[in-house]
Design brief:
With 169 residues, the chain is an alpha/beta fold. The protein contains 6 helices and 5 strands, in the order βαβαβαβαβαα. The structure holds adenosine-5'-diphosphate.
Length: 169
């Protein structure tokens, strides 16, 4: 029997966008089990609490709770080192999404540092569909705050939560 391959997809998911969902769907084609790690990320001053972000990710994936593309999915919060969390889940791959050149420098550094921490775990980069490649949680929050329409970037339920958080009806 071949070994079960586990992937770890970490992020802040503040909030989860259609770009994240697209990366999750693609990631399920490459591993047998995918752990989505929702980072506490105090430094980023998230709009949503850790519990809220975890809940939103779980809600987005409720249709595929039983699995997708033969891959089971688990959503877990984490507040320790990314590599330690990946190890705790016995992941052999870390999944990251790559948008534009702007993501590259940060991701390049992360891979370098993570390799020093554990050289057995590989990082793989996936690109979202053209439609979603430019979406960033940070911009979605800004648009919501400034009364803009975010329906092309997040699901209706995330949109409702965003509007509620910024005090829109
Ligand atoms: P982080 O705080 O680690 O940047 P994010 O929640 O912003 O967490 O993103 C998690 C991962 O998903 C990152 O690898 C990020 O590059 C990727 N990602 C986010 N939005 C998109 C998108 N629209 N297309 C592709 N990858 C994305």
């Amino acid at each position: 029997m071949s070994k079960k391959r586990t992937g770890f997809y970490p992020g802040t998911f503040d909030p989860i966008t259609l770009g994240h969902v697209d990366i999750i769907q693609r990631a399920t084609k490459t591993v047998d089990h995918l752990v989505i790690g929702v980072a506490i990320n105090r430094d980023k001053g998230p709009m949503f609490t850790l519990d809220e972000r975890v809940e939103m990710v779980r809600d987005e994936l409720s249709d595929v709770a039983g699995g997708l593309n033969g891959c089971t999915i688990d959503v877990q919060p984490f507040d320790n080192l990314l590599m330690h969390c990946a190890e705790q889940h016995s992941a052999s791959v870390i999944v990251r999404g790559l948008r534009a050149v702007s993501d590259f420098e940060y991701e390049f550094q992360m891979v370098g540092m993570n390799r020093r921490l554990n050289s057995e775990i590989e990082t793989v980069f996936l690109m979202a569909n053209d439609k979603y490649q430019f979406i960033a949680s940070r911009l979605v929050k800004e648009i919501a705050r400034l009364d803009g329409d975010v329906s092309a970037f997040v699901s209706p339920s995330v949109m409702a939560r965003l509007y509620e958080r910024v005090g829109r009806a």
